[in-house]
Every structure is written in structure tokens, then in C-alpha cells.
Amino acid sequence: CQIQALRSVQDQLGLEKLYVLGTPCVDNVTREGLQKFLETTSKSPDTVVHYEFMQDFRVHFKHEDGSEEKVPFFGLKTNQLKDVFAPSCMSCFDYVNSLADLVVGYMGAPFGWQWIVVRNDTGQEMLDLVKDQLDTQAVSEKGDRKQAVQQSIPAYDKGVTLPMWAAQLMGVVIERIGPKGLEYARFSIDSHFTRNYLYVKRNYPEKLEEHVPEFAKRIVEQYELPEN
Ligand code: SF4
Prior knowledge:
About 45% of the residues lie in helices and about 15% in strands. It has helices at about 1-10, 30-40, 80, 85-90, 120-130, 145-160, 165-175, 180-205, 210, 215-220, and strands spanning about 20, 50-55, 60-65, 70, 100-105, 115-120, 140, 180. It is an alpha+beta fold. Helix 8 crosses helix 10. The strands form three sheets. It has a three-stranded mixed β-sheet. Strands 2-3-4 form a three-stranded antiparallel β-sheet. It has ten helices and eight strands. The longest helix is centred in the C-terminal third of the chain and has 22 residues, at about 180-205. Bound molecules: iron/sulfur cluster. The site of iron/sulfur cluster has 8 residues, from helix 4.
């Protein structure tokens, strides 16, 4: 959304040239929401200095002392966390940062790697500057996201929360057989788009048709959503 704002004023900025590097973006939280998330998810909420939802289906927390804590997605207290995301992010369909020149993030890459999307010549120019310092490999994909996305829809809606031992077990299983690489990216995009479509439909029904972009509607149509 910051890049949408930037693009709308870029011609008035008097810049010689503008280079826009972005990341995929999803689920930002309010300050109170962040506190609630940390307190319900981490063993030591006061020492967390960084966290990230990673493609091994776990949240990785970094603590002040350098230690790392991993919590499986399935162990999140979804029933308490439904209201922590900003309404703007619950109605956003720009997960892949479509207006940046170059996008770097982990979501379509194997664990430990980053995924790079070059959108235009400017993005290519930026990538060329650092290309010989990077290790690269072709994108890959494995698994099938469809069932996992479909199951996530009622689970999120009902706020299903598993006990930690079951969540850990589920985390190990899904890491072995779940979607990977580009298919993980599709899993993440599809599950957020279906969730956000339902959010807009329930809260701003009069804006649904106009607000949701066609590409998002085509994704959402592939799944069965609750009637109301
Ligand atoms: S998810 Fe969308 S609305 Fe929220 S911060 Fe990211 S781009 Fe902006």
C-alpha cells in the first residue's frame, strides 16, 4: 500500500529516476494487536526483537539473547487473534507487491532462500547491480495447495486452536508433505485472498464487487466459501 501511494505521487517528486524495491506484504497488526500476538504465542514476549511467519509453517521468533523460538502456525491461538490484523490488511489483495520494480521475499523459495520477482526493466537494472554477488537457482514447486487452503477456510472462521503437542505433530507432517516453493506461495496467497474476500463480503458488502480485483476473484472462485 505504501508503494501504491508512492506511485500516485511519483511524477510530482522531481526525481531523476526512481527505483522501487519491495517485499511481499500481508497481515500487519495494530500495536495492541502485536502485543496480544506476542503474549499468546511466544514463551517470552518481552524479549522478542524480530519475528517472521516462515515457509516451514512455523513462526520464527528471535530474542534479545540471540536465541530462536519456533511455534507452528497450527499452535496459534486463532480464537484470540482474529481481531489483531489491521482492517486495511484484512481487505488487501496486493500480497505480491504488484507495483514494485523488484520484489524480494521468502514465500516462493525453499527454506533458507529468497524469491526474486523482476517486474520490469528498472527491476532488472537493480538486480544486475548485485547479481554476481548472489547464489541463484531456478524456482521449484512441490505438493498441492488446494486441499490445505480449503481446510484453512472453516478452520480460520471457527477459530480452531490445537493443543501445542498436536500443533507440533501437525507441523512436522505438513513440513514433509505440504506445499513447497512456488506451491507454498500459492497456498499463502490463496488462503489470504479467501480470508480477505470473506472479510470484505461480511463487513463492506456494498464495496465487494468494485474493491476485489479480477485476479483475486479468479483465485477465490476455485474454493468453496461459507454462504455468510
Ligand atoms: S497487507 Fe496490504 S494493506 Fe496491509 S500493510 Fe501490506 S500492503 Fe498495506
